[in-house]
Design goal:
Blueprint: E1 8-17, E2 22-27, E3 40-41, E4 44-46, H1 53-65, E5 70-81, E6 86-95, E7 108-113, H2 127-136
Parallel strand pairs: 1-6
Antiparallel strand pairs: 1-4, 2-3, 2-7, 5-6
Length: 139
């Protein structure tokens, strides 16, 4: 639990690149919490009971954006305290051949070169991933 006893949520996130080495950036819809409303994020979601991180990631990509991914490697663990919950996010480098995304939960998506990622309004928990990508790349 976090210091203020807010719920702890563990999620997985996919840093998805395509053959052009552009990164998939997803925009959340309107949310009652302004700190995540319409912010960009890496796609992902909660890990279900008895589910591995990798299985959760593949399931979430099918449910949220209707694509298949190849998970390459673990990239970064982010711990971030939002006003209402404490988030633990396990981010993985992934590849896809699919460029067409189905927006089942998000309102917009962009494929961007790493150098352009900081031009988006990211959710706070995703910013450490953006910074690491801009510093270290995906290799």
């Amino acid at each position: 639990m976090s210091i203020n006893n807010s719920p702890k949520i563990e999620v997985v996130a996919a840093i998805i690149s395509n053959d052009s080495e552009e990164i998939l950036c997803m925009q959340r819809g309107v949310n009652k919490h302004s700190y995540i409303s319409k912010k960009y994020e890496f796609p992902g979601g909660k890990i279900e009971q008895d589910e591995t991180n990798e299985n959760a990631l593949k399931r979430e990509m099918t449910e949220e954006i209707n694509i298949e991914i190849e998970i390459n490697s673990f990239y970064l663990k982010v711990e971030h305290e939002y006003p209402d919950f404490f988030l633990i996010m396990n981010a993985y480098l992934c590849k896809t051949k699919t460029l067409k995304i189905t927006l089942n939960e998000h309102i917009e998506y962009k494929w961007l070169p790493i150098k352009d990622l900081n031009g988006l309004d990211w959710a706070a928990a995703d910013i450490p991933i953006v910074k690491k990508l801009m510093r270290d790349g995906i290799n």
